[in-house]
Amino acid sequence: MSLQRRPEALAAAAAKIADGYLVSRLVNVRYLTGFTGSNAAVLVPADGPPVLATDGRYATQAAMECPDIEIVVARRLGPALVERARSSGCRRLAVERHHLTLASYDALLAAGGDDVDYVDGREAVEQLRAVKEEVELDTLRRACAVTDEVFGAVLDKLRPGATELDIAWRLQEEMHVRGAQPAFESIVAFGPNSARPHHQPTARALEAGDFVKMDFGARVDGYHADMTRTVVCGRAAGWQRDLHALVATIQAESRAEVAPGAVPVELDAAARERIEATGHDVAHGLGHGVGLEIHESPFLVPDSPAARLVDRVTVTVEPGIYLPGRGGVRIEDTVVVDATGAESLTSSPRELIEI
Ligand SMILES: [Mn+2]
């Protein structure tokens, strides 16, 4: 039902700037059609039904996944769809300027000849994707619930001697037994490594007194969860308690500001001011949209072009403070904007846990 509504919504957006929209970003094709294979493009005419193009390997799968959509099997998807658009009188076609390579654009130019002009589609599909449907929120809730369960399960594995790579593997295992996959390569950082925001797991073994920062999430039916928790192995030192409390407060305050009407740039700026007020440096933006991609619109960063948040937009809220050579703390939740504020879809404990 909703899958029919999505091309209609894009057609309405495309009609303002063109006669149709050629979508070549695979994740956007999936969103519009439900097709999950690795090679496809879709033509969405402003005034007609969509046409999906894929290659011979996926003809059967496409017919099964997209029973209500016309399918064209071709070797060169973009040019095939341009031919199709051209023959039905399309003179102006919106394309994904942010995604096309120069080579694929050249191929579109050749296929359209003098008949077709191309315009920037302005990331129209990404904008549609930012506002989730109920069915999407249900899937994200499942991904976040698995993520919370995995966190609880992995706490038991945090014993001195376990390496970062061991724990990253355990995270994956706990997701697997729950029918999920990792949404991205898990970040597991012990001790001083926790001061690197995007540390890659190593053979560093856990020692008493280490911070343990874990940034991970489950992927369920294509939808990504994203959560970070920082715990301590053994008794926390005073500076670790203080740092964790600072970040927890900033994260709670930032989360409370996520609401309909909030401006992404301003949310990021407010978090930035809070971190700077503690005398620490800001290492990264406050958060990002999350859904069919782990990082998607709207981005909560200083130069974000994103408009005000509305009901059913999902974002992460993930402030962190990092002390090079000592350790760092990040606390991250995946939240959904609702009618009056935001609800956190991840709900693992945010207070400092001593393992
Ligand atoms: Mn994140």
General description of the model:
The protein is α+β, with helices and mostly antiparallel strands and 355 residues long. It folds into two domains: 2-129, Creatine Amidinohydrolase, Chain A, domain 1 (3-Layer(aba) Sandwich); 131-344, Creatinase/methionine aminopeptidase superfamily (Creatine Amidinohydrolase, Alpha-Beta Complex). The protein has ten helices and 19 strands. It has helices at residues 2-15, 26-33, 59-65, 77-87, 102-112, 124-130, 134-155, 164-176, 238-257, 264-277, and strands at 20-23, 40-45, 51-54, 70-73, 92-95, 117-120, 181-182, 187-190, 211-216, 218-220, 223-224, 227-232, 287-289, 296-300, 314-317, 320-323, 327-330, 333-337, 342-344. The strands form six sheets. It has a six-stranded mixed sheet with strand order 4-3-2-1-5-6, with helices on both faces. A three-stranded antiparallel sheet has the order 7-10-11. Strands 8-9-12 form a three-stranded antiparallel sheet, with helices on one face. The N and C termini lie far apart (47 Å).
SSE map:
Layout: H1 2-15, E1 20-23, H2 26-33, E2 40-45, E3 51-54, H3 59-65, E4 70-73, H4 77-87, E5 92-95, H5 102-112, E6 117-120, H6 124-130, H7 134-155, H8 164-176, E7 181-182, E8 187-190, E9 211-216, E10 218-220, E11 223-224, E12 227-232, H9 238-257, H10 264-277, E13 287-289, E14 296-300, E15 314-317, E16 320-323, E17 327-330, E18 333-337, E19 342-344
Parallel strand pairs: 1-5, 3-4, 5-6
Antiparallel strand pairs: 1-2, 2-3, 7-10, 8-9, 9-12, 10-11, 13-14, 15-18, 16-17, 18-19
Bound molecules: manganese (II) ion.
Manganese (II) ion binds next to loops.
